[in-house]
Amino acid sequence: MLSPIRHPASIEAVRYHVRVRGQVQGVGFRPAVYRWAAAQGLTGCVYNDTHGAVVEVEGPAERVEAFLRGLAGAMPRLVRIDYLHHQAVPIRGDTAFIITPSRDSVVADAAVTVDTAVCDACLHEMRSPQNRRHGHALINCTDCGPRFSIIDAVPYDRPNTTMRRFAMCDLCRVEYDNPADRRFHAQPVCCPDCGPRVTLINRDGVEVVGSEDDPPHQAAEWLRAGKILAIKGIGGFHLAVRAGDADAVARLRQCKHRDAKPFAVMVRDVLAARALVQLTEAGEAALQGPAAPIVLAPRLGPSSVAPGLAAEVVPEVAPGTHRLGVMLPYTPIHHRLFDAQPQLGPLVMTSGNLSDEPLVTGNDEALNKLRDIADGLLMHNRPIARGVDDSVVLDLATGPPVLLRRSRGWVPTAIALDGGREAAAAPGLCVGGELKGTIAVVRRGEAVLGQHLGDLKHPAAYDNFRRSVDDMLGLFDVEPAWVACDRHPAYLSHGFAQRWAKDHGIALIEVQHHHAHAAALLAEHDRHDPILAFVADGVGYGDGGAVWGGEVLRVDRRNYQHLARLRPLRLPGGDAAARDTRRCALALLHQAYGDAGLDHPVVDSLGFEALERQTLSAMVRRRIHCVDSSALGRVFDGVAALLGLCQTNRFEAEAPMALEASAFAGDHAADTDTDACIVSVDTTPWAIDLSPLVRRLVDGRMRCEPTPNLAAYFHTGLARAWATLLRQLASDLGLNTIGLTGGVFANESFTLRVSHHLTDAGLTVLRHRQVPPNDGGLSLGQAAVAVACSVGRRKD
To answer: Helix, strand, or coil here: 370?
Structure first.
């Protein structure tokens, strides 16, 4: 028992047992309840258990009711209450309100709290010479710091975290035990005398004594001098280099094997971010929020950047795109770097790994894997239980930002699936797709989504995926009764799910790729009624093995009906076209002009060798080794090649990014042009034919019209065409809600234009808010479908 608040017993009292679930452990929930009970003059207790938290509150009825009404508003910033249920219990006559130790129960189903950025109060202490934590680069409290990345088991108590090996000193113990203190039961609480320590080592593993014996200070000097550093944060290592040093950036690209994919940069503060990118109010709020993600926003032109700042981020940091990913320091170590060196400009902060491999988390692992890249390692000895990458959001000109990678700061926040915590659905496992892999465990009618796992085709990423399955099932104490996967038989996650189901004797639920995208959108918005979903991406396994990716479905969580699609392209070499965008261009030309398109003069600009062109043209004419694909992503690839913007996708979506970047600078007058809006409704499913749009682009290319204008024309014409189709279908079916999902909706120009056309027609548009529109959201969609079908079977 801790620090009782004593009040005289009331002769007119009631007592309630209050069950609370949500993000309530390790975030200051219990001391806040303690203080709120004191303000109401109540007695009772509050404690954690493996379901969440329990409050026993006793006192005059009107005060108890006021306590319950105001409970949510009395909570700290990280508390999230998802479920609160109270019931009357017998009076005990308590004379104190106390905080009691955590209690165990049979099933561990408490929510696990997210990792969050260091708070202002901790930063103030870290920067105050009089404070005992002055300069402490691992400072934290109940309002900030590591959570998911250090927990080994629930309930979230220090013995169940990687901090258990660090014994608290007497001063930290006093804070930890005091309910009135900001560090009451802050499990990572520490100070320079008793906690983990920060060190700087060179690539040979030798510790470096920096100026003033301050590792961050010396590390900042190294960065200023053009060195590459590996820096350990909350969920793993970053590789950092000064963003204004072109030679250092080039060396980092070469060593990391990341030739062209844009890097994100960390800037000192929001003022420095505003000097580089154009942030909306919502984007700025996300940048400064507890999750502290990377925010993708349009770069300011040279004339808009303050003098001297343009050179602080060289073009090689983010080539081929009009956006720059910016983030703020979110750990005390990051802040110490910038504090130590006032002249330190923006820093490239990219994941500490070789391209496509999992994030490096351990110190020995970092020295082994990163020593050939980094000149030194700035690290601490607080172990990381699991790697958690930075989250990424896209700042839109209108509306809330869109999550593109849901990881640190968001995971493992649960999403309700069927509206009730006493759900009938059995627990399960969802293994997502193959690119942008995520997994989810289902329990108590909600999906708990794990962190971003990357491309499972890389052997190290696949091994990490398998470990993450075991980790999530163990952490949340889930014994699956079923496992859900994508229907694509070649996905590694599909094969894993098949073996898992067989080995454990449980049901295998295969969920169609685009149904999962749409179901994720429905789950986010707590919708169970049918909607019209426009699902647009690069590739997905459709009905009968067809290659889908530009589809319109009438969909609910249990079923879907295929209503419309993009007229399929004949892609030579199938999957090879996803990398070689010129093949997509040939397919577009063949569709627009027939066989004559393969000999069109514009093909000369695609850069084929003579034999290569002859072979690919023959493949298309004769339909040899070709795949018919309705994937809208391949259209973006092909148009980028036709306009001379990108002939090879060196990383996923490089060509669409270049196309959107060009359109950003173009004239969008094509909004009023209806020639591009050609919809064919004489087939089942309906087909949208983009041939007139392609012919217009090719004519413009041959007349040497400005490429940005043609890129803009493509976006506006394409959006108008799809919106025309969607409006017609919605009218025919009597539906008034359109869902937009799939990786193509990471394209701001296309997304906003389709949305505007639909809302102007009086339709409701659903877009993603809690999970990415890309394949990172598939595991949630699989969970929504599986639970809906499971609940449905139980009710039948």
So the answer is: helix
